[in-house]
Amino acid sequence: MFSVTSLGSGSKGNATVVRYDDELVLIDSGFSCKALEARLKARQIEPQDICAILVTHEHSDHFNGVPAFSRKYKTPVWMSCGTGMHPRVEKISHLHYLNTHTSFQLGKFEITPVAVPHDSREACQFILQAADWRVGILTDLGHITPYVSEQFSDLDILLLEFNHDLDLLLQGAYPEKLKRRVAGPLGHLSNRQACDFLAQQSWGKLKYLAAMHLSEENNRRELVERGIKAVGLPSDISTIIADQEKGFDWIELQ
């Protein structure tokens, strides 16, 4: 069985777990070690059962809880060399560096890092494959590059950023500098950018689409739902919207 769950998604913390048979991989943890333990147990996961942690980049909403958790449970951690420049990385005892353009084997998973344009040292997102199933996690990027578009195809599950509605962002209370950062080419995907990406790809295998990393200040669930509906995806694709507090429960392929 191949399954995926989000433990929470948004600017206050992100963590995703992918499971194949008895192997579980955690992607990011922006939550404290204690909070991550509670969120794992809410999904019937024992923290010591996490086989490895993949880190997309060093921003606190993705990295905050990784050092303490990995140290407590002796969990190996994989990240790019650029992400590894963060000073708190020295607290990780089982650290491995990855090449953001080279796939590698991690237990039963084939991991494909994908370099993305984001305002961090060397951000990447991930595609995880086991048997014939593939899940792609694509958040925290300011725009879709041709390379990203090429890599994120032929998926069974796609976790895609719908960070903000551009009008809400521009009319909102964020300082102008922050607005420019979020909407810029190294920021976060807007609803329109995410929907344009969906419309331009062929999704013959896709079974689940999860909208991720919604801004609580600059987005609304109904806007995301409306945008996805307008794309006209095949009717057999199930759509999920992850939230900050609960993420989404297990989705399974078998």
TrEMBL record:
Q: Which GO terms describe its molecular function?
A: hydrolase activity
Entry superkingdom: Bacteria
Metallo-beta-lactamase domain residues are 12-188
Q: Which SUPFAM superfamilies match?
A: Metallo-hydrolase/oxidoreductase
Does the record's keyword annotation contain Hydrolase? Answer: yes
Query: Is Hydrolase there in the keyword field?
Result: yes
**Keywords from the named record:** Hydrolase
Q: Which Pfam families match?
A: Lactamase_B_2
Q: Tell me which InterPro entries the record gives.
A: Metallo-B-lactamas, RibonucZ/Hydroxyglut_hydro, WalJ/YycJ-like
Q: What is this protein called?
A: MBL fold metallo-hydrolase
What organism is recorded for this protein? Answer: Aliikangiella coralliicola
